[in-house]
Write a structure and sequence with these properties.
By secondary structure, the chain is an alpha+beta fold. The protein has a single domain, classed as q2cbj1_9rhob like domain (Jelly Rolls), CATH 2.60.120.620. 33% of the residues lie in helices and 17% in strands. The chain has ten helices and twelve strands. The strands form three sheets. Strands 1, 2, 3, 4, 5, 8 and 10 form a seven-stranded antiparallel β-sheet that branches.
Length: 295
């Protein structure tokens, strides 16, 4: 069986055994929220004492509309936010590699996202009007061995938090989807929209996943780590706060090197995401987490 057989990948073991874990980190060492807040003072011409989770009240409606994306939120690529924020990110991933006990490649230019209270767009809306944004990043081409990191810069709860399904329900659903569609690995890794269309035609599946899904309430100083097969999504934010967060992908160096060896043996090319190859120097930083703070 090929390494890139979709059944083998969906059944593979993962370093996050239960699928999801919450990690506490020392905000005394990593004041990511404070660094971002001061960065945004200059980026958006805000008062020095503005609150991150109230940024929607600090910008005019015209400014918000100007920034909003089709998905109902907006984002800033990390590499556009300046040296203090970039350095804070590098120091954090370096600490994370020491804490986890292994080195990893990591996303070079993750997005800082702003989910304001309000309605999201209709691309992933069901006929009954409900939103169903849950997906697995493996449907977008991310490697099954990666670890998804979701880091809020303020306390998040309920509809302002990320919603995740259990590992068991997620993998069961993805396996059924891949088998029903008779997908190869190459077809599966570009099937995010097809997954929504598949789920939309199965009200019982939607109901089961909505029952299984739970918001992950986190306080500042916590981040979520999860298996990329775990179905996750964003709800329409009905809290009186903006969810300010950053999501980024990491991949253990051993797994990264194994994937590249398998691709070379099979004459394949690395997966890509929005035009960038999932290799060091493109989607991933040119340096690993343990190398980045020494250069």
């Amino acid at each position: 069986m090929s390494f890139f057989d979709i059944g083998r990948q969906l059944d593979s073991e993962h370093v996050i055994e239960n699928g999801i874990t919450i990690l506490d980190y020392p905000t005394s060492n990593f004041d990511l929220s404070g660094t971002l807040q001061q960065t945004l003072v200059d980026v958006y011409n805000l008062r020095n004492d503005f609150l991150l989770n109230k940024i929607h009240e600090c910008l005019s409606r015209e400014q918000i509309v100007q920034h909003l994306k089709d998905s109902g939120h907006w984002h800033d690529p990390l590499q556009t936010l300046g040296a203090p924020m970039i350095e804070a990110y590098y120091k954090f991933v370096n600490w994370l590699s020491q804490h986890l006990g292994f080195d990893f490649v990591f996303e070079h230019n993750p997005l800082v996202r702003y989910h304001i209270p309000g309605k999201l767009d209709d691309r992933y809306r069901l006929p009954d009007g409900e939103l169903f944004t849950h997906h697995s990043d493996t449907l977008l081409g991310d490697y099954f061995q990666q670890i998804n990191m979701w880091l809020p810069f303020c306390d998040v709860k309920n509809t302002a938090a990320l919603s995740v399904c259990s590992k068991h329900a997620s993998i069961r659903t993805l396996k059924s989807f891949a088998q029903t569609q008779e997908y190869s690995y190459d077809e599966y890794k570009d099937s995010r929209v097809a997954f929504f269309d598949y789920a939309k035609q199965r009200p019982q599946l939607i109901s089961a996943l909505q029952t299984d899904a739970m918001p992950v309430n986190l306080r500042y100083g916590q981040c979520l780590m999860f298996d990329p097969r775990v179905l996750h999504g964003t709800a329409e934010n009905t809290e009186n706060m903006t969810r300010v967060s950053m999501d980024f992908r990491i991949l253990p160096v051993d797994d990264y090197e194994s994937i590249l060896r398998e691709l070379e043996l099979q004459g394949g090319r690395p997966n890509s995401y929005e035009g960038e190859g999932l290799v060091k120097g493109e989607f991933y930083n040119a340096l690993t987490a343990r190398e980045v703070v020494t250069h």
